[in-house]
């Protein structure tokens, strides 16, 4: 009698434990399921402040949207290395690694 109560108790404990792990898992994975912008989109948002939404400029700052990847990549790396001199872009480009600039260049080149 006593052993069966203990047995039932541990089965209950086990199932509660599993449920907790399951719901903790759900809790941990929920943010990944929401439409959270990628770090690349967050980086691009800093560019869009000047270059316009999705890099489509409404003013005198050049557009970035759908420009050739080779051009965007080359000009960003050139700004970073001070091989091309601009008013602001040298400072902006220095805030990113070469890999990040390449990824951002791809991001804008691939916008349709
Ligand atoms: C503070 C405003 C500002 C921000 C922020 C900014 N840019 Fe620029 N960008 C400019 C201006 C102005 C130019 C023209 C060159 C210059 O004067 O520096 C330019 C030029 C460029 C060019 C050359 C375009 C062409 O057609 O020759 C590229 C590529 C570029 N920016 C990419 C970016 C990227 C990528 C970011 C974000 C990481 C960014 N810019 C953030 C203002 C900005």
From TrEMBL:
Molecular-function GO term, any one: heme binding
Check the record and name the InterPro entries matching this protein: Cyt_c-like_dom, Cyt_c-like_dom_sf, Cytochrome_c_Oxidase_Subunit
Transmembrane annotation, as ranges: 21-40
Note whether RNA-binding occurs among the keywords. no
Alphabetized Pfam families for the sequence: Cytochrom_C
Q: Which keywords does UniProt give here? A: Electron transport, Heme, Iron, Membrane, Metal-binding, Transmembrane, Transmembrane helix, Transport
Q: Which residues form the Cytochrome c domain?
A: 20-112
- Protein name, entry field: Cytochrome C
